[in-house]
Amino acid sequence: MHPLLTDSLILFLASFLIWIMYFVLLLLWLIDGRLEKNVALKAILASILAFVITEMVRNFIPTIRPFRVNGFPPLTVTVPGLHSFPSSHTAVAFAMAITLFKYSRKIGISFILAAVAVALGRIFANVHYLSDIFGGIFVGFAAFYLLDKLNILTIRKKHSKAKRY
Amino acid sequence: MLRKRKKTLVYFLTFTAITVAFATSLIIVSVKKNSQPDCACGNPNLGEVYDANNKIAFFEGKTINVPEISQSQVAASSTAVLGESTQERWIEIDLSDQKLYAWEGNSLYLETSVSTGLPGYDTPQGTFYIWIKLRSTKMEGGLGRLYYYLPNVPYVMFFENDIVPGYRGYGLHGTYWHNDFGRVHSHGCVNLPTPIAEKLYYWTSPVIPSGKTWVRVDENNPGTRIVVHQ
Fold first, then answer.
1. Are B126 and B163 in contact (CB under 8 A)?
2. Which segment of B51-60, B100-109, B209-218 scores lowest on mean pLDDT?
3. What is the C-alpha radius of gyration for chain A, rounded to an integer number of angstroms?
4. What fold does the segment set A3-150 form as a domain?
5. Which residue of A69, B34, B135, B201 has the fewest C-beta atoms within 10 A of its own C-beta?
6. For B51-99, what is each residue's pLDDT tens digit?
7. Residues 69-128, chain A, touching B (beta carbon < 8 A)
8. Helix%, strand%, coil% for chain A, nearest 5
9. Which ipTM value was assigned to this complex?
């Protein structure tokens, strides 16, 4: 593939895909109606919580971003800040995707695939290490779990067979 | 029916968003490539790279055999010694004459023809200081027909100042891929004949510590001044 296309693809995954995920989430809620309001709001709230957690962790565990160490410029729209652990893009994308996965397998799996693509984009754009990605996935799970335990915006599973407990 | 139309609308809007975002990515990448040209001589590594097995270089669409660098320590009589209290050694590069002069105070140590940056890849002018010296390194850059891949470039002295930081990759180095000295031929670096580059490598500061083949500047081991002018 032409290097210009490869670079564009990396920049697209690293910087734009996460906004497309939000956009599709809004479409599925407001136009399509496949997502209930509670689910959409919960997914957005989980992603915001994930972002807040990553910012807090970054202050406690300062790690220098790869592009400041290895000398190759970052391939993102804006040059991100100093610290890299954990990846906020990954955390936000996974928090959203996991929340949706709990509601609907079908929608959830496509969002999880998109979240994986975001994570790969962040690595190839030279702004994150693989360890940041795993940290981000963990924070994404944590944000989903915390919000789920809070019992607000309760969601019921779509198309799920009745479970007996 | 309405359900189906809504579904189509969602697919259409998603597709449009992805297309627009990807097109924007293409534009941003192209703009970045143009506004910040590739590093003059590849990204300077902060360590030495020498691969004796790497025999093939690629420059201007031609393959070139990579010569070996003698791996023995040079015992040049002109080697700079740390703390030596002689007159200042500095290097003058005249772009219009394509000449390099190495001065020790007012006396000339050596004079040589060089090749500096081609039009569009101009060697920056001003006063610089050497910040890292590598006996050999790999240089790679350019796109398409201008792609070059040059392993084991010998005797590399990267220089920098406040305006042109080190990561831009401008430097002096030996040359095995052309013999066109006296005319512009480089992507921004100053190409020297390899024997001259070797002499300068051991003549300039920062001084190479014994037992090492490369060095980075520090407070006690500052870099030689380099003046580039028209």
1. yes
2. B51-60
3. 17
4. Vanadium-containing Chloroperoxidase; domain 1 (1.20.144)
5. B34
6. 777 777 877 777 788 887 765 555 444 565 655 556 889 999 999 999 9
7. 71-73, 75, 77
8. 70, 0, 30
9. 0.85
